[in-house]
Design brief:
Strand content: 5-15%
Radius of gyration: 26 Å
Largest sheet: 5 strands, mixed
Mean pLDDT: 85
Length: 278
């Protein structure tokens, strides 16, 4: 049994830790609230853009775009959204594990022909540890996603695809649904999948200006830019949700530990009293 002094020291230590985890929970909860507002405000815009593209493509029999070209896969790009810091439960470890699985599924591709676009310090360091090529550092996009940064990253990837530096691009991130539900998502970013937008039988009579080719040449890149931005917003909200829950659990665990230590302290005092009486 621990001495009374040791128990008091542990109680003070746990209380100090609990104050920290409680404060971090409040900060993460505030950040989550802000991230939710951004996600919810952008979602209708993205959905409307997808709807416009779907309606437009449903009337086209043949679509010719540099972003839809399907070719043999010799070089692979993987875009992964993680966090810059820890204390968010299994958030990063799940993403890194899924990245490793994606690399394994492309075992026909040489390791040196796989490049990762790591958004967040944690996945960037994991890639370095695994000896995987990285295309740069994109820490700011994890901290505070902006459309400009997401657009630049998306365009870099798109340019590499067009120039045949990569033949296929996957994106891995957590899709945010609610504070308690974030779904691990793996999508094909490139080549652009037209089948998703060509479902249904939509009758539309469009007057296209200046030309179909120019409109499509603008519309598809815009949707791709939005896709990266939406993934960044989803990931940011999911990270804050994961951290909020992790800090809540840590705070509750501290409560349980304090109760146990309190009982231990009372037992120590009682035993000390019995020894004094004896």
């Amino acid at each position: 049994m621990s001495s009374l002094k040791e128990t008091k020291t542990r109680i003070q230590s746990v209380k100090s830790t609990q104050k920290i985890t409680s404060a971090m929970k409040m900060v993460s909860s505030s950040k989550l609230h802000k991230a939710e507002k951004v996600v919810n405000s952008f979602l209708p815009y993205q959905q409307r853009m997808n709807e416009i593209l779907k309606n437009y493509l449903s009337t086209e029999e043949e679509i010719d775009s540099v972003y839809t070209k399907i070719r043999d896969v010799y070089r692979v790009g993987i875009l992964v959204f993680a966090s810059n810091s820890s204390l968010c439960g299994s958030y990063n470890s799940v993403l890194i594990k899924r990245l490793q699985q994606s690399i394994y599924t492309h075992r026909d591709v040489r390791k040196e022909d796989i490049v990762v676009f790591p958004v967040g310090k944690k996945v960037h360091q994991a890639c370095l540890d695994m000896g995987i090529n990285v295309a740069g550092e994109f820490e700011e996009l994890s901290n505070a996603p902006t459309f400009k940064e997401a657009q630049q990253l998306a365009q870099t990837i798109m340019d590499m695809f067009v120039s045949h530096k990569i033949d296929r691009v996957k994106v891995i991130y957590f899709h945010y649904e609610s504070k308690s539900v974030q779904r691990l998502t793996v999508d094909t970013f490139l080549p652009f999948e037209l089948s998703y937008y060509q479902k249904g039988n939509i009758q539309a009579d469009y007057l296209i200006e200046p030309s179909k080719e120019q409109v499509l040449g603008t519309l598809i890149p815009q949707v791709l830019h939005f896709k990266v931005y939406a993934a960044a917003l989803d990931a940011n909200a999911s990270e804050q949700a994961a951290r909020t829950i992790a800090m809540q659990i840590a705070t509750e665990n501290a409560d349980d530990l304090l109760q146990d230590l309190s009982i231990d302290r009372k037992s120590t005092r009682l035993n000390s009293s019995h020894r004094c009486i004896s």
